[in-house]
Amino acid sequence: MRTKEEVAKLGEIDPELAEWLKNNPVPKGNWDNIKEFRAMRDEMGKQSLAALGPAAPHVEESFQNITMRDGFESQIKIHKPTGKTGGPLIVLVFGGGFVVGDNQQLTPYSRGLARAFDAVVVNTAYRLAPENKFPTAAHDTEDTLLWIAKNAESLGADPSKGFILGGVSAG
């Protein structure tokens, strides 16, 4: 069992983390206003993608529009190994509490997975709340997964070699 002093010490910030936080402060903005929060998140996402740079020559990236059950056109982002087909299929759903995020959010991971496993990696999209009420995001995700399953071969994937569905937070 730990002493009171040992437990209290657990609440102290690590000096390395303290230094990092000093140099990387939490972005200022109105975190309670969804429009401001989205704008802030979108700007951080753009900066991250710009810092990441374009896909390496061994990963191709493209976009595909697909139609949801209510006629809405959604867009998926596809990452696949250059010049290779028939690899496993990985589908990633972005997070953001169903109110922020987009199909670009998981690009760094998708590029790495496409390269490491010669896999086709698809980043999905869904419409955000509160403008789009439940179950819109769930329906968009289901419709997208059904479309991907029906079109895996045309995407260059072979799910019999592996199929992974993953995501973060709401995804």
TrEMBL record:
Keyword Hydrolase: yes
UniProtKB keywords: Hydrolase
Pfam families, sorted: Abhydrolase_3 (PF07859)
InterPro entries with a match to the protein in the record: AB_hydrolase_3, AB_hydrolase_fold, GDXG_lipolytic_enzyme
Alpha/beta hydrolase fold-3 domain segment(s): 91-171
GO molecular function: hydrolase activity
Domain of life, source organism: Eukaryota
SUPFAM superfamilies: alpha/beta-Hydrolases
Keyword Cytoplasm: no
Family annotation (PANTHER family): AB HYDROLASE SUPERFAMILY PROTEIN C4A8.06C (PTHR48081), ALPHA_BETA HYDROLASE FOLD-3 DOMAIN-CONTAINING PROTEIN-RELATED (PTHR48081:SF8)
Name under which the protein is recorded: Lipase/esterase
